[in-house]
Design brief:
Blueprint (H helix, E strand, L loop, with lengths): L1 H13 L6 H10 L3 H14 L4 H13 L3 H14 L4 H13 L3 H14 L4 H16 L2 H10 L7 H4 L1 H4 L2
Helix pairs in contact: 1-2, 2-3, 2-4, 3-4, 4-5, 5-6, 6-7, 7-8
């Protein structure tokens, strides 16, 4: 991984307009280097403001930082650029699920599944959202979120395979 990071960094130094910022930012994000990943993604977005993957990367960095609304906004922008962008559809589903908006989450996942039939993570997330929607009211969601400690039922962990793409 360190060699890849070095290679992508060198490529960006040689060509600041390179799309190498995408794998570089993702690698830094996965390593938990959110500040550095954010800087890389922002520089990439400055040069490629209409690239949906750049907005998707920035959104995932926001989610990792616990910033759901900015993540939602980035995914929304990506979907304005590319309405069938699977990563953004999955991300929007995650945010809606986090907020107890199960019907919207289900709709985003349904749309993602149409474009990505081989992604088993989408089907599993869709099943979970449907079960949650059937068993929890909005009041139950608010109470559960207030009382829940981070554990295996944490939506970030539940949607990890979906968000990791």
């Amino acid at each position: 991984m360190a060699d890849d990071i070095r290679r992508w960094s060198d490529e960006l130094a040689r060509d600041p307009a390179s799309l190498a910022f995408l794998p570089l930012g993702e690698a830094l994000r996965r390593q938990g280097q959110l500040d550095m990943a954010r800087r890389v993604a922002l520089r990439g977005l400055e040069r490629h403001p209409h690239h949906p993957d750049a907005h998707d990367l920035m959104a995932r960095i926001h989610v990792d930082g616990g910033e759901l609304q900015p993540a939602f906004d980035e995914w929304d922008m990506a979907l304005r650029i590319a309405p069938d962008h699977t990563g953004s559809l999955k991300g929007m589903a995650f945010v809606c699920y986090q907020q107890g908006r199960f019907a919207e989450s289900e709709e985003y996942l349904r749309r993602a599944a149409l474009g990505e039939t081989s992604d088993a993570g989408i089907g599993a997330a869709l099943d979970t959202v449907r079960r949650s929607s059937a068993t929890m009211s909005a009041a139950d969601v608010a109470a559960a979120e207030a009382a829940a400690a981070p554990d295996a039922s944490d939506p970030r962990l539940l949607f990890l395979p979906v968000l990791e793409g």
